[in-house]
Design a protein that fits this description.
- The protein starts with 29 loop residues before the first helix and ends in a 7-residue tail after the last helix.
- The relative contact order is 0.13.
- It has helices spanning 30-39, 42-46, 65-82, 87-96, 105-115, 124-135, 149-156, 168-171, 174-178, 187-211, 225-235, 241-271, 276-280, 291-309, 312-334, 341-346, 350-362, 366-377.
- The mean pLDDT is 93.
- It contains 18 helices and no strands.
- It is globular and about 60 Å long.
- It folds into 3 domains: 32-103 and 121-178, Hypothetical protein af1432 (Orthogonal Bundle); 187-310, no CATH class; 314-377, no CATH class.
- Helix 3 packs antiparallel against helix 4 and helix 4 packs across helix 10.
Length: 384
Amino acid sequence: MRLSLAPCACRPEASLGRVVPEPESPLRTAFQRDRDRIVHSTAFRRLEGKTQVFAPSLGDHYRTRLTHSLEVAQIARTVARALAVEEDLAEAIALAHDLGHSAFGHAGERALDRALSAFGGFDHNLQTFRIVTALERRYAAFDGLNLTFETLEGVVKHNGPLHGPLPEPIARHPLAERIDLSSQPPLEAQVAAVADDIAYCAHDLDDGLRAGFFAPEDLLPLPGVGPLVHDLLEAHRGLERGRLAHETTRRLIDALVRDLVAESRRRIDAARPDSPAAVRAQERPLVGFATAMAEAVAALRAFLGERVYRHFTVNRMSRKAERLVESLVAAFLEAPECLPDHWRARAVDRQATAAAVRDYIAGMTDRYAIDEYDRLFETSRETR
């Protein structure tokens, strides 16, 4: 049964539509079709083979970009329902938000950005936009996924309003003419953005505990997280590491979501927006944590940065990944004739070659990138 939506929620029947008009579905709303197109896309399937933080060589149970995206979508649906905004739109934005990430996590993206600095660098949010508007080649009538303007707006504004000159792929897209990209995102996009923060804080904490990068007791001084861990250790002495990690994670997610819903309701009630346009006109986001919880999240991020993201094991993986990606970029820029046929056909000049190399390498999974490196540089490997 569909719950009634708040006046400030986006509604599929009031959607601005798609760049290429299509008949409406008798069974699914426009936002449900967006979600389904994202799930069935090639880029979404590739997320299974892309590192989040921990490389697959460290174990089978650590998050990938795919499981991260699914966790973000689950949290986004919960929050969207609690705030009476459009669940399907929030879910679609959540599922799409990481499509543009390269292999090897942020290390791979840093390497791509550095190696392509002379050609505009690399930005995973912009790459996501390219994927859903051009790079996916599945439909007979258009390139990309032909998503609704509302889903595209949520993807583009994933990190908030866009100020200053727009990147060229966005500037020449009809989205830039139809929607003010310097305004606040709609509530559904705000929900997806904060759900992303909740998911990665919680699951990186979980993965770090499971990897043994820190002990549960190390979390006790942290605001917000410390009391949860203290109560858990007191109630379940001697609990095995895996159960302890999961219990900590689920209690943290619950605390973050409850705070987010309560604070967001307070902001919405104070602002009283009566339409999505009124949400866009706000000076600040209406979805967010209360001050104390925001400070706790910042402290947790700092802890994870020191104990997980800069752990020597992760640093070693990152260094190898960056060297591999930079080698691939250099090889293909120097010899674009080594690109597969589809990508080589795009390499008509230096700038076009760089764009083809960017899109080709950014789409690779970790395993495919390693195999491609071996095919190019290992003399014992076949070249196909």
